[in-house]
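ERR on first pass: missing label on line 2. Operator R.T. fixed the label and resubmitted. Corrected input:
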Amino acid sequence: MAEISEKYNTKCPGVKRLMREAMELAEATEEYCARPLEDNLFEWHFTVQGPKGTDFEGGIYHGRILLPKEYPMHPPHIILLTPNGRFEVNKKICLSISGHHPETWQPSWSIRTALLALIAFMPTPAEGTIGSLDYSPAERKILAKKSVSWACSQCGEIAALLSSTTAAKPITEEEKTVLNQIAFKAEDEQTAKPPEEPAHTQEPEPQVLESSEPTNSFLDQLTEILVALLVGAVGIFIYRRWNAHYPTSETEL
Amino acid sequence: MADDASSSSGCAGNIIDNSINQDELIMKQQREIEKEISETIPLVGELEDLSSLEKEYNEDPVYLLKVKDLSSKYKYIRRTRPDGNCFFRAFSYAYLEHLLTDKSEYNKFYEIAKNSKEILVALGFSQFTVEDFYETFMEVVQRVGEQAGGSPDALDSVRTELHDKFNKQGYSDYIVVYLRLVTSGQLQTENDFYQNFIEGPRTVTEFCRQEVEPMYKESDHIHIIALSNALNVGVRVKYMDRGEGSQVIAHDFPEGSKPLVHLLYRPGHYDILYA
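pass 2 clean. output:
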């Protein structure tokens, strides 16, 4: 932190705010932890625990937080690094109030709000939103198990980053109403550069899962089209048979 | 962004993606417009003679009549950037400027401002983010207080300082955020009363989360009523639009108060007026 105060203009409200948040989040909790990189106050790494009672239970997920220079007027971006089956990894996602534009981010929210919202949002259905993945519960559970031994090239073994004893501060009234409304989705053309560190372990399998995703939906689509064609053909057939049987029905009227 | 949305709708094959695509395009366009605006208009401009409005409406007889009416009561105008925060920015600038020459009003305001943080924390806003905005806000307020009622020279220098701070995005936005929070606090504290002003099925709290607390959300009557009540400051808004007649109608908030801040409203935007 000492270096940071030399490097940045601490009179600038955004910098002051981030230093404050770094202090606020200095102590790791069981649910989440986050801290700025040594040399960049505007990039943080975080770790969250998968929400209990969901497919992510027991999982530990690590990622980056990128803070825009207008922070806290504009929302932080989150990039997950640990394969999790809910969000694509290495893709910028952004939080917003569901059904509204990302401009509904509020400056009184913080990195903590974003992390709590991320945890709360993980078990919600992906519904084809950009940046979302719709893996099966079984696949997610496997990833949750594997995530425990995942390591970040900058932060090391992520399982060691969370506290095993300190509970997070209770959720405030404001946060409660916020958490119910928040949604995450990817934005921009995101070629969010894969982080410089290709040092992750156990990459191959999640990649296999990822590549099976578009194929699945393509097959689904193909099946839908075939079913539609079939229904149409049967309809025409019945119609023609009907006319053949009652050819005079119109003239009678 | 468009590419991204369309390519993903290619694999997911659902209709939702199309609407996202449209939304994203509109948003992108809006962001570009906002960027253009922010590059050309200062957050708070210099004092201008009211005649600059006449030039603006050179070929518009309806507005020209109204500008004429306006100029019988006001001499100057100070424009603000139309970024959705203009009411809060115009209000705080004009009020702090007024406080420089009104020490007793300053003392009254200082007490209200000092207690405002506790009200917000009690309502459940996160203590440390509220404190963050509060401190920057109070820093500016206190600078005004140190010089309030001072010599003309001292006032001139603090006016310049105020003007600089209001044009520094960081400071300026922090003041706007804090006033948005105070407005939200007032609405939530008196939610029985304000619920009547909210159209549709939204609760006061939902309204605050969606229309008051986020930056760049435009202000309506309800914002002005709440803020002027919360700070106990009289605001007169002159409404200038295409409506009938040659008079510019004034509204005082709260009703019957003595206005210390005078604002000009033209559809979608607030500027500061000076007698």
